[in-house]
């Protein structure tokens, strides 16, 4: 999802006229639904192959495929489009206004890269046969931190302009995504 959000936001900044006139209205919802469906399918397949009917070879092949898809396709695309968006917004001679959505996307991508990617790469290398020292407990903590930071980011960005944080969570989310 972070990859598709980065691509869509980058395209809307780089090609705003094309996005307004040619982009299908429900494209975001359709792509999000397809990604959720793919995730559900892969997780169900992983549960069946790795837990219910354990097959070491099939489980390992599936996990390597998922890891390769994540880190050889999705993560590089997310980095490319996020960096392009960041450079376009920050280095623009038109002084484009950086909105809250831009801040949310950049912080989410940054924390994903810090907390989720390194450990996932180590786990992928472990499945490929390269042994590194890592602790599953540390992995769970990093995963929890990464997942827990997103609502905090949304809340803080949503209430950023006002010094006092007396807003409801709904208002903070509404302000974070008003762009």
From TrEMBL:
The UniProt record lists the keyword Protease: no
One GO MF annotation is: G protein-coupled receptor activity
- Reading the lineage from the top rank, the first entry is Eukaryota
Keywords for this protein: G-protein coupled receptor, Membrane, Receptor, Transducer, Transmembrane, Transmembrane helix
Tell me yes or no: is Transmembrane helix among this UniProt entry's keywords.
yes
Where the record annotates domain G-protein coupled receptors family 1 profile, the positions are 1-154
This entry carries the following GO cellular component terms, namely: plasma membrane
Membrane topology, as annotated: Multi-pass membrane protein
| Alphabetical list of PANTHER family matching this protein | G-PROTEIN COUPLED RECEPTORS FAMILY 1 PROFILE DOMAIN-CONTAINING PROTEIN-RELATED, MAS-RELATED G-PROTEIN COUPLED RECEPTOR
Q: What is this protein called?
A: Proto-oncogene Mas
Q: Which organism is it from?
A: Phaethon lepturus
> Which lineage do the record's taxonomy fields give for this organism?
Eukaryota, Metazoa, Chordata, Craniata, Vertebrata
């Amino acid at each position: 999802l972070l990859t598709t959000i980065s691509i869509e936001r980058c395209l809307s900044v780089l090609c705003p006229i094309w996005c307004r006139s040619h982009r299908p209205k429900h494209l975001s919802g359709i792509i999000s639904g397809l990604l959720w469906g793919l995730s559900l399918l892969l997780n169900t397949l992983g549960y069946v192959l790795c837990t219910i009917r354990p097959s070491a070879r099939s489980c390992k092949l599936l996990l390597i495929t998922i890891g390769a898809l994540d880190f050889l396709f999705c993560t590089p695309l997310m980095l490319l489009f996020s960096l392009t968006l960041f450079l376009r917004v920050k280095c623009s001679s038109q002084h484009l206004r950086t909105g809250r959505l831009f801040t949310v996307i950049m912080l989410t991508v940054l924390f994903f890269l810090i907390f989720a990617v390194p450990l996932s790469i180590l786990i992928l290398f472990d499945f490929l046969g390269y042994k590194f020292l890592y602790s599953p407990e540390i992995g769970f903590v990093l995963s929890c931190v990464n997942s827990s930071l997103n609502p905090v980011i949304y809340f803080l960005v949503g209430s950023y302009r006002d010094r006092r944080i007396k807003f409801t969570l709904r208002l903070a989310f509404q302000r974070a995504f008003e762009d």
